[in-house]
Design goal:
single chain, alpha+beta, Phosphorylase Kinase, domain 1, Aminoglycoside 3'-phosphotransferase, Chain: A, domain 2, 2 domains, two-stranded antiparallel ribbon, 11 helices, 10 strands, 17% strand, globular
């Protein structure tokens, strides 16, 4: 018979995926809700669970993952969402706990993690040109409504350090990354930060959603036949540049389609998105537009850093060295993007 040991002293847990039944019990315990059904939606930057109560009301429970960037931003996120909802912005509002706390800290093998609950956003991701127009309008309303936010500050300022400096730090300890490629990324980060420093004084600043790539808002048609959209996942929000928040959508499309320049479909979507933003009251200056290629690159670098900084959770397959090498050409191509509309 082989001896077994319940707890191997050499085991160091890095990320635990909680069973849906555990999340259901925590939501029932801390929010006092009669949970009828709970299921894991996806694992990623955080772990999200679909929750349905006995009366049919739907929610999303989020278990925040431990990230190398630092502590959870949940106090800011929840307070910002409450403020935005009070101003009529279309956001998935948070659901406070029974004792009015914003979240609960839960002990996991890897450390403390936060659990928060949000309203479910009905509908599907934007698809038609009208949907992108509507998305732009809603984002403009969010930016405007956030102007007088005075709650807890964000842990993140979406500046050069957040978007580029952190990535370089992660790459410096990335396994099997040769010195030549690391030096290439050093030069890239240096160039982007120089360009940002030269441009930032003339750029519009907002409270950014931080992740407006087209999959963090759902479009839904209500009983009266009126289309509405609702934004969610504000866990990357913080003060930053309007051009950055706007750049996230075209960068997402370019990346998913492996494009070095916009195709006709992206140009149409972008035109309607920007038109909707302006029609919703959002002011976009010529300098903001001129800075979009810079922020498309900074966004790509940030995304790359999220993968490179999460090797303990996602592994090197999320950003293989050969893929990191190929991205150098994308950064070079995107320097000359034309996103005028």
């Amino acid at each position: 018979m082989t001896d077994t040991q319940k707890n191997d002293p050499d085991l160091v847990p890095t990320h635990t995926t909680a069973a849906a039944i555990s999340v259901a019990r925590w939501v029932a315990q801390h929010h006092g809700l009669p949970v009828q059904q709970c299921a894991l939606i996806r694992r990623g930057l955080n772990d999200n669970y679909a929750v349905r109560c006995a009366d049919g009301t739907r929610y999303v429970a989020r278990l925040y993952s431990i990230r190398p960037r630092g502590g959870f931003n949940v106090d800011f996120e929840v307070a910002l969402l409450e403020h935005l909802a009070s101003k009529g912005a279309s956001v998935a509002a948070p659901v406070l706990m029974a004792d009015r706390r914003t979240h609960v800290q839960l002990q996991f093998p890897e450390g403390l993690r936060a659990l928060a609950l949000f309203r479910h956003a009905e509908g599907t991701t934007p698809d038609t040109l009208d949907d992108f127009d509507l998305t732009g309008r809603a984002l403009a309303h969010i930016h405007e409504a956030a102007r007088d936010y005075v709650g807890p500050p964000s842990r993140y300022t979406l500046d050069g350090h957040h978007l580029a400096g952190r990535t370089l730090a992660y790459l410096k300890v990335y396994p099997e990354l040769n010195e030549d490629l690391l030096e290439t990324y050093r030069r890239l980060v240096h160039r982007l930060l120089e360009e940002l420093t030269a441009a930032e004084d003339g750029l519009t600043r907002v409270v950014c959603h931080g992740d407006t790539h087209g999959f963090n808002n759902h479009v839904n048609t209500d009983a009266a036949g009126i289309k509405k959209t609702m934004f969610f996942d504000f866990d990357d929000a913080g003060p930053g540049f309007l051009a950055y928040d706007l750049s996230v959508l075209p960068r997402s499309y370019l990346f998913r389609k492996s494009l070095k320049e916009p195709d006709d479909a992206l140009r149409e979507r972008w035109m309607h998105y920007l038109r909707g933003y302006r029609a919703g009251g959002g002011g976009v200056s010529e300098r903001d537009i001129a800075a979009l290629p810079l922020f498309v690159q900074l966004r790509h670098l940030w995304n790359l850093g999220e993968a490179a900084g999460r090797l303990h959770h996602w592994g090197t397959n999320s950003a293989p060295v050969d893929w990191l090498q190929k991205q150098v050409d994308m950064f070079e191509a995107w320097k000359g993007l034309d996103l005028r509309a």
